[in-house]
Write a structure and sequence with these properties.
The chain is an alpha/beta fold. Helix content is 15%, strand content 24%.
């Protein structure tokens, strides 16, 4: 999972981390590889159902612009089943879809940044 920590959604970081924790707590998921990013990858953590994600808030830096390309570049060598991106959707994206499925979990005021992947609205 990748969470956008750019200036336009930095106040959503806590809500984004709650979504990550909920997914990590499901019995079908062993762990979630979490990437926090704005114009670059700011931090990366392996989240399990026992991880205290609220403690990660103090470690998350961001507040700049948004660029999705570093996240997708980092995922090129990863055998991820799916990439879930929590964002408002504003920023440059890769030209082509990756080999794995992508779910864009967009804020209420978000926009779909590409014509590939699936979309989900989050509050």
């Amino acid at each position: 999972m990748a969470i956008d920590v750019s200036g336009s959604v930095f106040d959503m970081t806590s809500a984004f981390l709650s979504e990550v924790q909920a997914i990590a707590a499901t019995s079908e998921v062993e762990a979630v590889d979490l990437i926090a990013f704005d114009t670059e990858i700011r931090c990366q953590h392996l989240i399990t159902d026992e991880t205290n994600v609220s403690s990660l808030l103090s470690q998350v830096e961001g507040g700049g612009g948004t660029d999705f390309r570093p996240v997708f570049a980092a995922m090129e060598s990863d055998a991820a089943a799916v990439l879930i991106v929590l964002t408002d959707g504003y920023g440059p994206v890769p030209k082509y879809a990756p080999d794995h499925p992508v779910l864009w979990a967009l804020t209420e005021t978000g926009r779909y940044p590409v014509d590939w992947g699936s979309r989900l609205s989050i509050g």
